[in-house]
Each structure stands twice: as structure tokens, then as C-alpha cells.
Specification:
Blueprint (H helix, E strand, L loop, with lengths): L9 E10 L4 E7 L10 E7 L5 E7 L8 E6 L7 H7 L5 E8 L13 E6 L3 H14 L5 E7 L8 H10 L3 E7 L16 H11 L5 E7 H13 L7 E6 L4
Parallel strand pairs: 7-8, 7-10, 8-9, 10-11
Antiparallel strand pairs: 1-2, 1-6, 2-5, 3-4, 3-6
Helix pairs in contact: 4-5
Length: 245
């Protein structure tokens, strides 16, 4: 069966839901979608029995060609995320459309070095890029810097630690804002200009592509810091999410 057009709503089945952190769940979908590019997203639509609908966009965390994975952070005042955490089960059907988006993407042929900076669930599209990089075995440096309040709130932490241990060219740095760090080289602070500049210097590569994803406040702070660290604005791309659904 051929994939449907990206702007057409279609049914998707939930194959699996699993916790990633205390507030982020991995949702694996089965749907007849076109092959996505790392950094793209899906629109998700839920319809209540009375006909009321709620819609939310979620970045795709899986590598291109793999089953679609969404990383859904639970927002207590949200209309969509609590469904995935408290109600949805494997086998349930939802509506989706996509993949969508062409600005915040990276392909292996785009080259590098690549610097990825994530805040909280903003790691989702960057995980797609990391997984794509790992599968294509491209010979270019990639560093992922993830900010979270605590070590336990780092999404995909064990996967990233394993990748760093097994693959030359990949570096993973955790920035913990409300707790102790667990490894030498991680940061126990917010990502300001000084911290970002030091991380880039220690990395030893001048990035060709910089992609930043997180809340509005996080992205604003990081992009200011990168500019103060003398990285050209033209090489930085951002993706932002708000605090409500």
C-alpha cells in the first residue's frame, strides 16, 4: 500500500507505549506514512465521543525508515499529552498527518560537524538526527548537548551513553540544572555563553550546522549564548514548543 499524502489525515495504530522519563513517554505508531527526514514532525488529532477534537504537533524521534516514534511529554493542563500517558493503550487508533516541516532538518549528505542542543522533550527531533547519523555511519563529528533538570529526566540517556561508548565521532554532554552531574565533562548549570563556548572548544570542532530545540525560553537563551560564543547566526536553526497544548 502506498503512503498517503502528508497533509491528509489518516488512521494510525499505537503499537507500543513505554516510559522514557517520569514525564516523557515513547509512543510507537504503525501508519502508512511517507519516509520522513530527520527533524520533521507529525500532527496528531484526537476526537472525543461528542465530536470535540484536539490537535498537537510532535516531532518524530525515530530514524528515517524506522517505525515512527514520538516522545510525548505530559503537560498537566494539556488536551493531548495526558491521553498518551493515562488512557491510550497498544491497539488504539488515532489520526495523524505528515511528515511535515522542511526547515529544521538534517541529512547525512548535509555534512558537518554538527552541534545539536536539546532542552527537555526538545530532544525528539535531535534523536532522529543522532540515530540517522549512527545508521548511515557518516564520517563526521556530532555532539549532542542535552539540558534537563535532573539525571533521571534525561530522555534516551542510556541509548546515548551506549552510542558514545561504541562510536567514534559522537559526543554526548548532559547539562543538569537542578541536581548533581554523574560524569566528568557534564555540566551542573544552564547553558550560557561561557558554557557553550567551553563545550565547543573542548569538542575541538567548529560546527557547520547547529540545531537547537526546546521551550521558547530555552531556545532564546541558547541562541543568545551561541551568538556570544561567536557562532554565526546563519548556521543556527531552531525549533520551539510552547508550554500549552
Amino acid at each position: 500500500m502506498s503512503a498517503q499524502g502528508p497533509t491528509r489525515w489518516q488512521e494510525a495504530m499505537i503499537e507500543r507505549i513505554a516510559p522514557v522519563t517520569p514525564r516523557i513517554a515513547s509512543v510507537i505508531l504503525k501508519a502508512d506514512l511517507a519516509r520522513h527526514v530527520s527533524g520533521q514532525h507529525l500532527d496528531v488529532r484526537l476526537t472525543a465521543p461528542d465530536g470535540y477534537t484536539a490537535q498537537r504537533s510532535y516531532s518524530i524521534a525515530s530514524a528515517p525508515g524506522e517505525p515512527v516514534e514520538l516522545l510525548v511529554e505530559k503537560l498537566d493542563d494539556g488536551e493531548v499529552s495526558p491521553y498518551f500517558h493515562d488512557i491510550a493503550q497498544a491497539g488504539d487508533a488515532i489520526e495523524v498527518r505528515g511528515p511535515l516541516g522542511g526547515h529544521f532538518i538534517w541529512r547525512a549528505e548535509d555534512g558537518g560537524p554538527v552541534l545539536l542542543v536539546a532542552g527537555g522533550s526538545g530532544i525528539a527531533p535531535l534523536m532522529a538526527m543522532v540515530r540517522d547519523w549512527a545508521r548511515t555511519a557518516v564520517d563526521l563529528p556530532l555532539m549532542l548537548v542535552c539540558s534537563a533538570r535532573t539525571w533521571d529526566e534525561l530522555a534516551c540517556r542510556d541509548e546515548l551513553l551506549g552510542l558514545e561508548a561504541s562510536r567514534t565521532g559522537f559526543r554526548f554532554v548532559a547539562a543538569i540544572t537542578r541536581g548533581p552531574v554523574q560524569r566528568a565533562g557534564d555540566r551542573a548549570q544552564r547553558l550560557d555563553a561561557a558554557a557553550l563556548k567551553e563545550l565547543i572548544v573542548r569538542w575541538g570542532h567548529l560546527p557547520r550546522h547547529v540545531l537547537v530545540c526546546g521551550s521558547n525560553r530555552f531556545v532564546e537563551g541558547v541562541t543568545r549564548g551561541l551568538a556570544d560564543a561567536t557562532l554565526a547566526a546563519g548556521m543556527i536553526r531552531t525549533e520551539r514548543y510552547g508550554g500549552a497544548e
